[in-house]
Amino acid sequence: MDANGILNVSAKENSTGRSKNIVIKNDRGRLSQAEIDRMLSEAERYKEEDEKQRQRVAARNQLESYIFSVKQAVEDAGDKLSEQDKGTARSACEDALKWLDNNTLADQEEYEHKLKDLQRACSPLMTKMHGGGAGGQPGGMPGGMPGGMPGGGYQRNDGPTVEEVD
């Protein structure tokens, strides 16, 4: 069998000395060059459409991911958010999920617009939840001792020391 899938078979009858050759081609079920060219041209023609579809699906997935991450963050918020704020976030997420269910054929721009709307609604709550409004403790040290050492002076330590080695 050669590289093109062609099998040459020879048979010889020993008693009479007759021989016959037969060529078996494996062209059944194979694509012709015309069919291959047609498929390549169709792939080129639909390439842009496929890219738009990929971007549309990515935008939908991004919106869906944001919805579920906000819902999870609200559930994990504990007492960082008031029940009213949690209800506002849950309601916005549920509305967005209903919109997703009713607009399965929306285009990329519609999904992106809906994501921005949801982010505008939830961003203040996320900022509040992640400590954007919480203040830190004044003074440099946890116990409120700004100087660092009690008594304010240098204490001598005759024990072993640790030096940095590069």
From TrEMBL:
Annotated region (Disordered) at 126-166
Gene3D superfamilies reported in the protein's UniProt record: 1.20.1270.10, Substrate Binding Domain Of DNAk, Chain A, domain 1 (2.60.34.10)
Could you tell me where the Gly residues compositional bias lies? Answer: 130-154
- Molecular functions (GO terms): ATP binding; ATP-dependent protein folding chaperone
Note whether Cell wall biogenesis/degradation occurs among the keywords: no
For this UniProt record, the keywords arranged alphabetically read as follows: ATP-binding, Nucleotide-binding, Stress response
Source species, domain of life: Eukaryota
SUPFAM superfamilies, per database record: Heat shock protein 70kD (HSP70), C-terminal subdomain, Heat shock protein 70kD (HSP70), peptide-binding domain
- Stretches of the chain forming a coiled coil according to its record: none
UniProt record similarity statement: Belongs to the heat shock protein 70 family.
Name-wise, this protein is Heat shock protein 70
Originating species: Arctia plantaginis (Wood tiger moth)
